[in-house]
Amino acid sequence: MIERFVAMMDGFEREPAAALARHRGHELLRVAAGQRVVDVGCGTGTSVGELAAAGARVSGVDVNPEVLVVAKGRHPAGEFTEGSAERLPFPDGHFHGYRAERVYHAVADPAAALAEAARVLAPGGRIVLIGPNWEMVGVDSDDPATERAVLGAQVASMPSPRSALRYRNLLLDGGFTDVAVEVHTALLTGETGLPMLESAASAAVGTGVISAERAQNWLAEQRERVARGRFLLAAPQFVASATRP
């Protein structure tokens, strides 16, 4: 199971648009060499490794202990700790930079997670939030009704699927300054997008939204599109940045 998850994450992070949003987020952190950064929801540690290579002192946090084993093996320069966005195992004002990518949609209370971000950031520290608004994800399909059913089931399974659209107001309401938002649309045209669709289709079947046969037919169409070079998944990535006063 973890191998499949890691392969999916690796594939997505290699996509040009995903890498662009990630690297833009690094720029917006404005972290100098030697300063401390926390990467919440660090996954396999891609950003931890990149920021550490630039001279930052980076702590990666994730709720999944298995993925942290992978991260530690790949990025020995980073420090990795099990924890959640709502309860970070660090003292007040410990970091100069905070980033969370594709995390807040999985958090029941994004405002509480943001309050925790403010707690661990030092005054003048920078925050960057990156993620898609899941209701805006779309897939080219000959069966748009099933596409909507599948993606709708995925959205329904998330605690906060609209969190990326809320980044700006969350930051403003949380007392942050210099709030800015950019959007970089990820366009997946190969097999990288299939695992996400398979997971979404499974959720749609499991909740009774569509039948297993209908889901398999739709997935077969998407696999055939990949084989013919006709697959397209579009996911707008919101990149929000701000400063802790």
UniProtKB/TrEMBL annotation:
GO molecular function: S-adenosylmethionine-dependent methyltransferase activity
Keywords carried by this UniProt record: Methyltransferase, Transferase
Record-level GO BP terms: methylation
Pfam assignment, any one: Methyltransf_11
Top-level taxonomic group: Bacteria
Segments forming domain Methyltransferase type: 38-129
UniProt xrefs under InterPro entries: Methyltransf_11, SAM-dependent_MTases_sf
Gene3D superfamilies: Vaccinia Virus protein VP39
Name listed for the protein in its UniProt record: Methyltransferase
